[in-house]
Design goal:
There is one protein chain. With 237 residues, the protein is of the alpha/beta class. The strands form two sheets. It has a six-stranded mixed sheet, with helices on both faces. A four-stranded antiparallel sheet has the order 2-1-4-5, with helices on one face. Helix 2 crosses helix 3, helix 2 runs parallel beside helix 4 and helix 3 crosses helix 4. The longest helix has 16 residues. It is globular.
């Protein structure tokens, strides 16, 4: 693997029974890059992300993360993963949740900074069960990044988050990437996709195309990303 690749996926396939979730996917993500995965529900995005954190092993092909073949338990402290379904402890406070995730990843610091990043420091004593869905989403993000991972995996990170905070979070992601953190994000929001340095479109478990937002719009001959992905999806379906 080249030293410049944080993630290197080679001809990966994954079946769940008779369902082929991924079919010969090859892609690479550079260190310090924000890479977006786009595709409809059931396209294989979440399965691929779960491979990056070692929760799913491929049936064929290889997944290498930060120079290590996955799955590899030793890599967990170097990867942050925010799932679609918030993995929180509802009976604990906001701060207690973040401290727990910091501890299991081998760090005690960063709790205040993580809560400030998601604008929840003032709610640090609140019990999670009393939070709104959007606040729980923000707390999940704080838990994923508290240990300052080298690779941050975000599966639909801004669902339920108000528009102003969504912009602020993406500004923060850009700062993290500029500082060397690699970020892979799945999203259905096209203005978020425009903020990724490169994008990959996944449909029926296959990587249909990838490139910068501008390259993909040009390739499809469409003025917007939404129209470009619709056109490319329809032509390859």
């Amino acid at each position: 693997m080249s030293d410049s690749w944080a993630v290197d996926v080679e001809d990966v396939s994954k079946n769940f029974g008779d369902v082929k979730a991924l079919d010969g996917v090859t892609l690479r993500v550079r260190q310090g890059e924000i890479y977006g995965l786009l595709g409809p529900n059931g396209s294989g995005k979440t399965t691929l992300i779960r491979m990056f954190v070692g929760l799913v092993a491929p049936n064929a092909g290889t997944v290498t993360v930060l120079g290590q073949r996955m799955p590899n338990v030793a890599m967990l402290s170097h990867v942050g993963y925010m799932t679609q379904a918030a993995a929180l402890y509802p009976g604990l406070s906001v701060e207690e949740n973040v401290r727990f995730f910091a501890a299991i990843n081998g760090t005690e610091g960063g709790v205040k900074a993580a809560l400030e990043f998601v604008k929840l420091y003032d709610r640090r004593a609140s019990v999670v069960s009393t939070l709104s869905g959007g606040m729980r989403q923000r707390l999940s993000l704080a838990c994923a990044l508290v240990h300052k991972p080298q690779l941050l995996l975000l599966d639909e990170p801004t669902v339920g988050v108000d528009p102003q905070l969504r912009v602020e979070l993406w500004d923060g992601f850009k700062e993290m990437a500029d500082a060397g953190t690699t970020i892979i994000v799945s999203s259905h929001v096209m203005d978020e996709a425009e903020r990724c340095q490169r994008l990959g479109l996944i449909l029926f478990g296959k990587l249909l195309t990838e490139g910068t937002p501008g390259e993909i719009r040009s390739r499809a001959g469409r003025p917007t990303l939404e129209e470009a992905f619709l056109s490319l999806s329809q032509s390859r379906a």
